From TrEMBL:
<comment type="subunit">
    <text>Forms pentamers. Component of the PI(3,5)P2 regulatory complex/PAS complex, at least composed of PIKFYVE, FIG4 and VAC14. VAC14 nucleates the assembly of the complex and serves as a scaffold by pentamerizing into a star-shaped structure, which can bind a single copy each of PIKFYVE and FIG4 and coordinates their activities. Interacts with NOS1.</text>
</comment>
<keyword id="KW-0472">Membrane</keyword>
<keyword id="KW-0677">Repeat</keyword>
<keyword id="KW-0967">Endosome</keyword>
<dbReference type="Pfam" id="PF12755">
    <property type="entry name" value="Vac14_Fab1_bd"/>
</dbReference>
<dbReference type="GO" id="GO:0006661">
    <property type="term" value="P:phosphatidylinositol biosynthetic process"/>
</dbReference>
<dbReference type="InterPro" id="IPR026825">
    <property type="entry name" value="Vac14"/>
</dbReference>
<feature type="region of interest" description="Disordered">
    <location>
        <begin position="445"/>
        <end position="464"/>
    </location>
</feature>
<protein>
    <recommendedName>
        <fullName>Protein VAC14 homolog</fullName>
    </recommendedName>
</protein>
<dbReference type="Pfam" id="PF11916">
    <property type="entry name" value="Vac14_Fig4_bd"/>
</dbReference>
<dbReference type="InterPro" id="IPR011989">
    <property type="entry name" value="ARM-like"/>
</dbReference>
<comment type="function">
    <text>Scaffold protein component of the PI(3,5)P2 regulatory complex which regulates both the synthesis and turnover of phosphatidylinositol 3,5-bisphosphate (PtdIns(3,5)P2). Pentamerizes into a star-shaped structure and nucleates the assembly of the complex. The pentamer binds a single copy each of PIKFYVE and FIG4 and coordinates both PIKfyve kinase activity and FIG4 phosphatase activity, being required to maintain normal levels of phosphatidylinositol 3-phosphate (PtdIns(3)P) and phosphatidylinositol 5-phosphate (PtdIns(5)P).</text>
</comment>
<keyword id="KW-0492">Microsome</keyword>
<keyword id="KW-0256">Endoplasmic reticulum</keyword>
<dbReference type="InterPro" id="IPR021841">
    <property type="entry name" value="VAC14_Fig4p-bd"/>
</dbReference>
<comment type="similarity">
    <text>Belongs to the VAC14 family.</text>
</comment>
<dbReference type="GO" id="GO:0070772">
    <property type="term" value="C:PAS complex"/>
</dbReference>
Length: 752
């Protein structure tokens, strides 16, 4: 046969050559008889050897019958087919590349062959073909990728090993740029990474590592956006190796691609946030996820808040920006929608990019705030998530309110209820972050609406002393400014501040355990984050109209304890102690009216503000009140407070007996109210130290104290305040009688 073929080649008789190949194919290789098929395969291989370099002209006719025999049921015949194809390819070398896809398809099937001889033969052929591809510069990668993409999803271990080996070979060839087609096969590679075989997992890990090295070297040619969602999916894999590898890729993508990754922020956060609460068993994943989270957060910039303005400037003629246009609010007013629960979905992975103008050039902006907020809101509603995830969510919300305040305030009404609920969290760290977000909402100039202050909302009426709400264009333009330059009487705040105070008190009222366990902690932190004067002013104004008198009394007691003992309120205490300004006197009057819900706290407020005569007048009224154990306990606590450093100035004023007679009378009044207890002994010993006024006289004679001068000039109507105190206490007395009556009725029902 070889001699015959050589003669035809010498004669250039192509028709006879094709005739010989056809007979070998049709009558032998494709015969029904197995021995004939074996003979046909040997004949085709011999024919190819005889053709030599001219075999490339007849490769289709030579290869097709051999590949058909790859599917033969006889393992020996499959081995002969493998051997025949090896000889054909060895002779043709680079000429077989146009037929590479069919050869690869056939080899991928033989790689999973159960017969070891066939598998061994296929491996020899595989190595030969890899050598040919490596040597050649004519490999058709574009035509091969669809086949590779299809075969990469095979579940057979040997087929997977075969696929990975080819990917490693193609990646190593300098002239073949497989990186351009990585989006086509990346998902399949991550699927293979989860194989049960350690060897295959290791090979796949090496392949992915090589691709990542190439990406770091040539980031400008990488199609980051096309692979982002693939990584998002595998970052949520249950397999630790897949998740860690995908997370490492995501970290590099965010750092290399930058804002290109922003359209996929919601998907990335869906994958990354739960990982932040992993324990030490998944420490590596947690650390990488944390880097991803931090890097993604840095991509959000203040210019993202100006997208709408930039788009408008492209469609509308440019006009000079006036102060009125800058201060025009974009946030939706709260009203009843403040308590509406959002319907959220955490699966929004594909976001539509928009664009904006930054400096002099137009660059793409791909931040879709709606998708990000939906994911964050979804995680806050999920009670099963870990503490670190909740903290990260709140950090994101705070960051977004700082960087994109105007856009974020469109979502405030839907976020507000869950942020209030989060105040009941078990973790102090979560509550601190939650308070930071709420404080930013309440103080950001971007949240200013036309209807602001106490009159905004169904539960809020106009207060006697309106809160100061400055709104300036300069404040709107700088989202990071919190009005630090403002005096305590004119802090920066917006319409959400008063709503926040109303809803916070509602939460304390409905969840008394929260008030008892965390109430003081929450209010103290708010005094650090916001303006303490406004917090106390607004809460006092709200409590003045509180229908639940028992809660009002408890809340006033809590606020009073914070006011007298917290280091955060040092400045406010000094402001009230002197009452030098009209603002401080207005604040005192506002606090006093609400403090009347609790008689003892009212006296302590008078002691703090050095209104000793009024304190004495109040104590005189105590004889008309119902003296209970709780009442005496509060008097006991007040005596303990008088001995604290806060009231040092009060104790020193006892030296000036002549100018502070009502202070001494008030203290004696408290002493007369107390039973023979430790507090009685404590106050009695203190009053015994009051000096004889005759011994304390000086040559200059008695001079009125600063407190007396201040009280005389304060223009406060103490008679009206005393009447208000009596009115409030009468309400409390009626409420106690009603509760007692209901209790008696309940006892009768139980007896009956």
């Amino acid at each position: 046969l070889p001699r015959l073929v050589r003669e035809f080649v010498a004669q250039n008789n192509t028709s006879q050559i094709k005739h010989v190949i056809q007979i070998l194919s049709q009558e032998f290789a494709l015969s029904q008889h197995p021995h004939s098929r074996k003979g046909g395969l040997i004949g085709l291989a011999a024919c190819s050897i005889a053709l030599g370099k001219d075999s490339g002209l007849y490769l289709k006719e030579l290869i097709e019958p051999v590949l058909t025999c790859f599917n033969d049921a006889d393992s020996r015949l499959r081995y002969y087919a493998c051997e025949a194809l090896y000889n054909i390819v060895k002779v043709a070398r680079g000429s077989v590349l146009p037929h590479f896809n069919v050869l690869f398809d056939g080899l991928s099937k033989l790689a999973a062959d159960p017969d070891p001889n066939v598998k061994s033969g296929s491996e020899l052929l595989d190595r030969l073909l890899k050598d040919i591809v490596t040597e050649s510069n004519q490999f058709d990668l574009v035509g091969f990728i669809p086949l590779l993409r299809e075969r990469i999803y095979s579940n057979n271990q040997y087929a997977r090993q075969f696929i990975i080996s080819w990917i490693l070979v193609l990646e190593s060839v300098p002239d073949i740029n497989l990186l351009d087609y990585l989006p086509e096969i990346l998902d399949g590679l991550f699927q293979i990474l989860g194989d049960n075989s350690k060897e295959i997992r290791k090979m796949c890990e090496v392949a992915l590592g090589e691709f990542l090295k190439e990406i770091k070297k040539n980031p400008s040619s990488v199609k980051f956006a096309e692979m982002a969602n693939i990584l998002v999916i595998h970052c949520q894999a249950s397999d630790d190796l897949i998740q860690l590898t995908a997370m490492c890729w995501m970290r590099e993508f965010i750092q290399l691609a930058g804002r290109v990754m922003l359209p996929y922020s919601s998907g990335i956060l869906t994958a990354v946030l739960p990982c932040l609460s992993y324990d030490d068993r998944k420490k590596n994943i947690k650390e990488v996820a944390n880097v991803c989270n931090q890097s993604l957060m840095k991509l959000v910039i203040p210019e993202d808040d100006d997208v709408d303005e930039a788009k408008q400037s492209m469609t509308l003629p440019a006009e000079p920006a006036s102060e009125e246009s800058l201060s025009k609010p974009e946030a939706v007013s709260g009203g009843e929608s403040l308590f509406a629960w959002p319907s959220v979905c955490c699966n929004s992975l594909f976001l539509v990019p928009v664009s904006f103008l930054c400096s002099s050039e137009r660059i793409p902006v791909t931040l879709n705030l709606d998708g990000i907020v939906q994911v964050l809101d979804c995680h806050l509603h999920d009670t099963s998530i870990g503490m670190m995830t909740r903290i990260a969510v709140l950090k994101w919300l705070y960051h977004l309110y700082i960087k994109t305040p105007r856009k974020m305030f469109r979502h405030t009404d839907s976020l507000f209820p869950i942020l209030l609920r989060t105040l009941s969290d078990e973790s102090d760290e979560v509550i601190l972050k939650d308070l930071e977000v709420l404080a930013e909402i309440a103080s950001s100039p971007a949240g200013q609406t036309e209807g602001h202050g106490p009159s905004d909302g169904p539960d809020a009426r106009s207060s006697q002393v309106e809160l100061h709400v400055p709104v300036k264009a300069s404040q709107l333009s700088s989202s990071g400014t919190k009005g630090l330059e403002c005096s305590p009487s004119t802090p920066t705040m917006n319409s959400y501040f008063y709503k926040f105070m109303i809803n916070l008190l509602k939460r304390f009222s409905s969840e008394r355990k929260l008030l008892e366990m965390r109430g003081a902690f929450i209010i103290r932190q708010l005094c650090l984050l916001l303006n303490a004067e406004n917090i106390f002013h607004s809460m006092a104004d709200i409590l003045l109209r509180e229908e639940d008198l028992k809660f009002a009394s408890t809340m006033v007691h809590t606020l009073n304890t914070i006011l007298l003992t917290s280091s955060e309120l040092f400045q406010l205490r000094n402001q009230l102690k002197d009452l030098k300004t009209q603002e401080s006197r207005n604040l005192f009057c506002c606090l006093y009216r609400s403090w009347c819900h609790n008689p003892v706290t009212t006296v302590s407020l008078c002691f703090l503000t050095q209104n000793y005569k009024h304190a004495y007048d109040l104590i005189q009224k105590f004889g008309d009140l119902e003296v209970t154990v709780d009442f005496l306990t509060e008097v006991d606590k007040l005596v303990q407070l008088i001995e604290c450093p806060i009231f040092t100035y009060l104790r020193l004023q006892l030296l000036d007996v002549k100018n502070n007679p009502y202070l001494i009378k008030a203290l004696y009044g408290l002493l007369m109210l107390l039973p023979q207890s430790s507090a009685f002994q404590l106050l009695s010993h203190r009053l015994q130290c009051v000096p004889n006024p005759e011994l304390m006289q000086t040559a200059d004679g008695a001079k009125p104290s600063a407190g007396s001068k201040r009280s005389a000039a304060s223009n406060i109507d103490y008679t009206e305040l005393l009447q208000h105190f009596e009115k409030v206490q009468n309400k409390h007395l009626e409420a106690r009688h009603q509760r007692a009556g209901r209790g008696e009725q309940l006892e009768r029902r139980v007896v009956l």
